[in-house]
Design brief:
globular; 14 helices; alpha/beta; 392 residues; seven-stranded mixed sheet; nine-stranded mixed sheet
Length: 392
């Protein structure tokens, strides 16, 4: 989609056409396109159908009400911050007293929208003309143009001294897909950190897999999950230097420390197994959760916690374990058949076998359900069988 194609969508004809496609079935796209091209220019029909598909995909990230009013680019929709995460971050910035912010590498404007909804004045900057046009249209579509200034510029040349805070979201995708080297971000992480250090308050969005040794000593590092899925990590400057946080949404539930505990010891599998939230694992705060639970690891290298008593925690999901077996597909298949297990949840950590491969080989059948963990116990490939707990 070119900027000209997108501009056509903002005309009365384009807007009406796009609105008419809100509930269209992509499986019938050829028939729909053929019908619409009798009344509208072919380029406009193609742009509207593409935008309608993007809006449908964006519902999971932004909710139906916003997604069907917003505009997207294919890459921008994928890279945009999930609305729940953007809202959480905006609320945290507002609580820090931020009333104006420079959003560098703003993309389609997901974070800028969340900030403006809290009354924060935002300068949203991106260098791509189409992305800038989309971000500006989104501000208008949600009635936030008075609070969001969208500017096409190189973020490395933008003066941010007049703002209370800076938020930087470097692009982590290149022409060949996802970029893992922080210095290959656009702009590089070193530039983002230097810019953040010069601000009163700053947040730099990074990939959750960043090595802990790459976190600057004066930064607070936060890993954020939403409904159990790790979405991102953030380096905060001007908040709590050296602190490590695992933030779980919805909530938020926050586990934080500036003095992490040493790795917990390992021991035999008890009656209960706890699967820590991904943000807890990424932030290396499994030991803190194990201490809360009075638990231990099942293996020094595996982030599963086990305990003999059931305790409530928001930071891990608890399972009651009925069987601990050496790994073996024949043994597992026979056990599942004996218990009539047809609904099988497969989880793995420290195992090479893939869940779908296991299901194909054991062919579960029956009315009952179970969870199997493919993992290591004291270094040995093992299978733990159980079910989620309902208490305490």
């Amino acid at each position: 989609m070119t900027p000209e194609d997108f501009a056509a969508l903002l005309t009365p004809e384009g807007s009406a056409l796009l609105d008419s496609l809100r509930d269209y079935d992509p499986a019938r796209e050829l028939a729909v396109a053929t019908r619409l091209r009798r009344e509208h220019p072919a380029p406009l029909v193609s742009a509207a159908l593409g935008q309608a598909r993007l809006r449908q995909r964006a519902v999971a990230k932004f909710g139906a009400e916003d997604a069907h009013r917003m505009y997207f680019t294919p890459g921008g929709g994928e890279m945009a911050t999930r609305a729940s995460v953007a809202s959480y971050r905006a609320e945290r910035l507002a609580a820090l007293g931020v009333r104006s912010l420079a959003d560098l590498c703003c993309g389609i404007g997901g974070d800028a929208l969340a900030l403006a909804r809290l009354g924060i004045r935002v300068l949203a900057v991106d260098r791509d003309p189409l992305t800038v046009a989309v971000a500006r249209a989104n501000a208008g579509a949600l009635g936030l143009s008075d609070l969001i200034e969208v500017r096409e510029a190189d973020v490395t040349e933008v003066d941010t001294t007049g703002y209370d805070a800076v938020f930087i979201d470097p692009a982590r995708r290149g022409g060949r897909g996802r970029v893992f080297d922080p210095e290959s971000y656009s702009p590089p992480l070193s530039w983002a950190v230097a810019t953040a250090r010069a601000a009163k308050i700053a947040a730099v969005k990074i990939a959750p897999g960043i090595p802990h040794e790459a976190v600057p000593a004066e930064a607070e590092a936060e890993w954020i999950s939403d409904h159990g899925d790790v979405k991102e990590a953030v380096l905060w400057f001007g908040t709590a230097p050296g602190e490590i946080r695992a933030t779980l949404l919805p909530g938020p539930r926050v586990l934080a420390t500036a003095d992490p505990l040493p790795d917990p010891g390992a021991g035999p599998v008890g009656r209960y197994l706890y699967e820590p939230d991904g943000a807890v694992i990424r932030s290396h705060l499994v030991a803190e959760v194990a201490e809360q639970l009075g638990g231990r690891l099942i293996d020094p290298t595996i982030a599963y916690i086990t305990a003999d008593e059931l305790r409530a925690t928001p930071y891990a999901t608890a399972y009651e374990i009925t069987d601990v077996l050496p790994f073996g597909l024949k043994k597992l298949k026979a056990l599942l058949r004996e218990r009539g297990v047809g609904i099988l949840t497969v989880k793995k950590r420290g195992s090479a076998i893939e869940p779908e491969e296991l299901r194909r080989k054991v062919k579960p059948q029956g009315p009952n359900s179970a969870t199997v963990f493919l993992t290591r116990v004291a270094g040995a490939p093992s299978m733990l069988i159980g079910a989620p707990t309902t208490g305490p």
